[in-house]
Amino acid sequence: MDEMILRGFVSPEDFTGSPAEKLQAALSAAAGKDIRKVIIEGRWQVDQTLIVPVPVEIILRDAELEMTGEGPLLVNEADVKPERAVWALEDQYLYIKGEPGKKAVLRGGLSWFHLQYLVMEDLQTEGSVRCEFCRELRLERNEMTGTDGPALLLMRGVNNVILQYSSLAGQERALVLDTGAAAGPYVVGKDADIHDVLIRDCRLASASGAAPLQLLACGANRIYNSQADHLTADGPAAELGREGENLPADRYFNLTLCDLGGTPAEKLLLQNETYHCYFA
Amino acid sequence: MREFVSANETLRADDAATVQAAIALAAAEGCRKAVIPRRNARTGESLWVFDRAVELPSDFTLILDNCVVRQGLASYENLFTNERSYDLDYINRPENRSHDIAILGEGNTILDGGAQNMLREKTKGQFGLPASCHKNSLCRWWHVDGLRLENVHLRNPRYWALVHLFCHRVTLKNINFQAEPHIPNLDGIDLRVGCQDFYIENITGRTGDDSVALNAMSSKAAQKEYPAEWTPHICHIKMRNLKCDSNTCFLLRLLNHDGNEIFDIDADTLYDACDPAEGLLKKAAVSIGSPFYWNQWAAKPGDTRDIRIRHVTSSGTNALVLNRVLRDCEIDDVKTFGGSVNGVSTVGEGLLAENVTVRHFFYGPERPQGPAGTAVNLTNMQGEMRLEHLQAAGAAVGLAASGGIRVSVSDAVWENIPEKLRTDGISSVEEEVYHG
Q1: Phi and psi at residue B337, in whole multiples of 5°?
Q2: ipTM of the complex
Q3: CB distance A57–B108 less than 8 Å?
Q4: Rounded to 5°, angle at Cα A218 from A129 and A108
Q5: Which of B366, B411, B413, B415 to probe by mutation at the A interface, max A CB count within 10 Å?
Q6: How far is Cα B228 from Cα A84, in angstroms, rounded to an integer?
Q7: Do A93 and B108 touch (CB under 8 A)?
Q8: Eight-class DSSP state of A237
Q9: How far does B107 lie from chain A, in Å, by closest CA?
């Protein structure tokens, strides 16, 4: 262990067992021994979800991780611990990054719950990345592909997101903001609104032909103070609201959708009234 | 040649000396890269405490690898500065200008001010405290050409966190602030006189004062600190994605006097990240100019010019505060929320506006019980201003104009505003398209 501390990082090759056991041991050691950095190289197939304790930095160096079993490939610790809905016990600081020009593949879905400060950079993700009650996210230069859902799903209680310089592709949708989507318990004291999300300079694609970006408010929960600009997509880029549903206009408040590669009429499907939104 | 020198290879009596020795060794060996790792082998802890500033030489990269670096409890010293930056006889010579310095964080890197030492603007020179606050900043750079600071969390700054004077070609990216306690003087990023060619991107978190401040003022005493031929202007600044809570101050502040100019400023996407429920009402998201703070003379027409700002949200008392002089300025897509009272406004001596346009401006209460202020408050203003594509709801007054300003308004929608227009008789408002 002293060698790992001196070296400044943990590798799954430092441990024995199945691939999943070695990876989980590396993640746990990085947190438990206050090393905080895991470097993963090569190809790994795991049959059980890996739990990521935080704070930690995971570097994928020409690496590929694949889930062969059920459930997501990675979850943060707050997603599985019993007290996960306690506001004061929010997870903090998770960094996952590849290296420019090298393979850094996460195949099998990621689930982040009640997490503050997430950075994902230079990654290829296959499977949905889901965030619920998360804040201060920075996702840059990623290639994200959804296999059984959107490439990225921002659920209730997500705020302060910077997503840019990335490509996202999905079957039905590529990127969904949905205040009604929930997987975990409600974090008491938190707000279910989605707000302060910046989506910039991204390429979006959906196999279905539907607008790849969808914004969905639900009930009294709003989407506000958010922006999508300089997106490229074939056909309509964004759809706001659900066809046949008519929520009050302030559920979609202070939104900017601009520079979508065409006129708003061509690139934007408005299914709901909005309040103080800028479309261009 | 090896790639870098670790600070754990050069242990000395204290942490600052240890890191300084690693930098010296890396420079001597030629790799010109040093790393501060997480674990401090001198103490066995995951903490580095500097009682004096670490000076970075030119053409040098310092990697901060998941480490925590803290200012010493009893120190009034920066964490990092450029080599001999306080020795003005040395650093002001052209041949001694610092260049190409990078500080790059990896993972969870924290630069921490630690406990407050109470040295701020109102206490400096008193109670035995130093006469200058500048050494209390986390990083202070003087006369640097080529500087990068990326991927760091800045915690508990004791004063302005990052200070730049006469710096050119600077990149500041992925910087997250957490200023506690949430008190004045704890600015985030300060560009002072002579700063040019900055790129600032992804600035987040909470600052105790202005989040990003471009301040070009010079007292006669300050002017003696740099050669007369140096330009004190601030120009060619691009910023993108500022998402901060700036306490009761400004998310972005542009302020110049004393003959110093500010021009060619491009600010793209400034989001006020405060929680209105906390009840801390900031002054504004964006402030340009001020009737105060000048040392020799106030800014003159043309001194503040060529400014482009787009995509702003604000919960401040005002969204935009415009003062003194402003020429060739375009502001596009501004929205209020929370407790915002006025949209566009001025304080003090008013504004001389020349070729100023505000377009796509959305003012209104976030909730029906929101405050009733003035959507566009152009009191005591002169010159000309264009307002295009306005939507305002719930204000007591829609547009107030006084002082002789000529305002043209196109495509305005006023809702639930009892007094849509208030003028003083010498100002004029021309409405091209009007809905009310």
Answers
A1: -155, 180
A2: 0.96
A3: yes
A4: 15
A5: B366
A6: 61
A7: yes
A8: -
A9: 5
Contacts of B362 in chain A (CB under 8 A): 254, 276-278
Residues of chain B numbered 340-399 and touching chain A (CB < 8 Å): 360, 362, 364, 366, 391
DSSP string, B27-56: HHHT--EEEE-SSBTTTTBS-EEESSPEEE
Contact assessment for residue B346 and residue B377, using Cβ atoms and an 8 Å cutoff: yes
A44 with A65: CB under 8 angstroms? Answer: yes
Question: Is the sign of the CA dihedral B3, B9, B13, B14 positive or negative?
Answer: positive
Strand partners, B169: none
Q: What is the mean pLDDT of residues B395-403?
A: 91
* B137-171 pLDDT, tens digit each: 999 999 999 999 999 999 999 999 999 999 999 99
Q: What does the pLDDT look like over A30-44, one tens digit per residue?
A: 999 999 999 999 999
d(CA B213, CA B198): 13
The DSSP secondary-structure symbol of A49 reads P
Residue type, B12: R
Q: Cα torsion at B36, B41, B42, B47 (round to 10°)?
A: 50
How distant is the Cα of B5 from the closest Cα of chain A, in angstroms?
A: 13
Calculate mean pLDDT across residues B192-203.
98
Which residues of chain B have a CB within 8 Å of the CB of A57? 66, 106-108
> Residue A211 region, left (φ>0) first, then alpha (ψ -120 to 50), else beta?
beta
d(CA B73, nearest CA chain A) in Å: 24
